Amino acid sequence: MQWEMLTEPQFRQAVSDTGVCVLSIGVLERHGDHLPLGTDYINVHAIARRACEIEPAVAFPPFYFGQINEARCFGGTVSLEPTLLYSLLENVLDEIGRNGFGKIIVANGHGGNTALLSYLAQCTLAREKPYTVYLRPLGAMIGERQTRLGEIVDRSRCGHAGEMEASMVLANAPDGAEMDAVGDAPAKPLGRMKDVPGGFLGISWYADYPEHYAGDARGATEDKGRALVPLLSEDLADFIAAVKADTVAPALERAFFERERGLRGT
């Protein structure tokens, strides 16, 4: 079910029936010269919509504001001021909760959002909320599905704008791909920060991939994308089912805040 396509009575029924909303998040950023700026949110939202059909839940409209300071030097990037971005995400989650959802899954399609979303999840313990947040990175599969993934694409070629992302764009939004613009060689890390091993800097990604392309998209095909999308959707659907059934996290959060109130004597 897509939030924006429901009537108000249908929406209230969906909240009652499912209790779970899936917020899929990407960004607007360069994906080499061959994929659209919206690649991350296009792919993750397509998967979220399909997953919410398999395991009934409500898919929030496409959300394409994320952490992407490392691509500010490229045209088309939308990089919000950091505190505004955090406040926006928190407010959106609060609005989803205000509308009655007790459980919110944040399905992340952009690697640069990882630290931000982890911090956002940690900060749900700073103030009691009427909902529980569950993070789920796109492709965070284990076991047999990881094996199936490796049978569809070459994992060594699946970096940023590489074989996996390009294949899914060819399946989800083929008009947005310009595969003739793919380079003649894979995009390998330049290692320009190798003399400072083991550290992380804001410039680390740019140091390795100054053209915002990592991996190799030359093997991407629409058929691979059409195999990947249902695989990832089924995996997310299983996660939705697990979240629906979960009683542990909400109970632990309630106990946590009861202890905090006791500490404050309130």
**What is the residue-averaged pLDDT?**
95
CATH superfamily: Creatininase
Q: What is the CATH topology?
A: Rossmann fold
Largest sheet: 4 strands, parallel
How many helices?
Answer: 9
CATH class: Alpha Beta
Strand-and-helix sequence, N→C?
HEHEHEHEHHHHH
In total, the number of domains comes to 1
Per DSSP E runs of 2 or more residues, the count of β-strands stands at 4
Separation of the first and last Cα atoms: 41 Å
Report the principal-axis shape: globular
At CATH's second level, what is the architecture?
A: 3-Layer(aba) Sandwich
Determine the structural class based on helices, strands and strand pairing: alpha/beta
Calculate Rg over CA atoms: 19 Å
Assembly level: single chain
Biggest β-sheet: strands ordered side by side in the sheet: 2-1-3-4
User: Considering DSSP H and I runs of 4 or more, what fraction of the residues is helical?
Assistant: 40-55%
